[in-house]
Amino acid sequence: MLEAANNSELPPIPGKRYFTIGEVGDLCGVKAHVLRYWEQEFPQLKPVKRRGNRRYYQRHDVMLVRQIRGLLYQQGFTIGGARQKLSGESAKDDVNHSKQVIKQTLVELEQVLELLKR
Description:
- The chain has a two-stranded antiparallel sheet.
- The termini are far apart.
- Helices cover 59% and strands 5% of the residues.
- The chain has one domain (4-117): Multidrug-efflux Transporter Regulator, Chain: A, Domain 2 (Orthogonal Bundle).
- The chain has 5 helices and 2 strands; from the N terminus they run H-H-E-E-H-H-H.
- It has 118 residues and is mainly alpha-helical.
- The longest helix has 27 residues, at 91-117.
């Protein structure tokens, strides 16, 4: 699963509802063409498409991209292996994912608190 050590170099995810493909690329450290390729390879990655086939990713999509990135780049999985791991996630992985979401939310709340204190 996605561990904090894998994402220490990645910026925190802003509190927005939708992200463009360029924003997701910047947040996850991958290029737009890689994201489009991963959409074909990972059925879980389905951004919303609007006018002109523009992609809009939601927070859970960004976290999934970070998870895919961690599996491929840090843990050395192949595309097939990463796809299999993602499709066969156990309850333990779901708990770890929930913990990661909670940690990310706490970081963002602390940032908001710091802004409010100023």
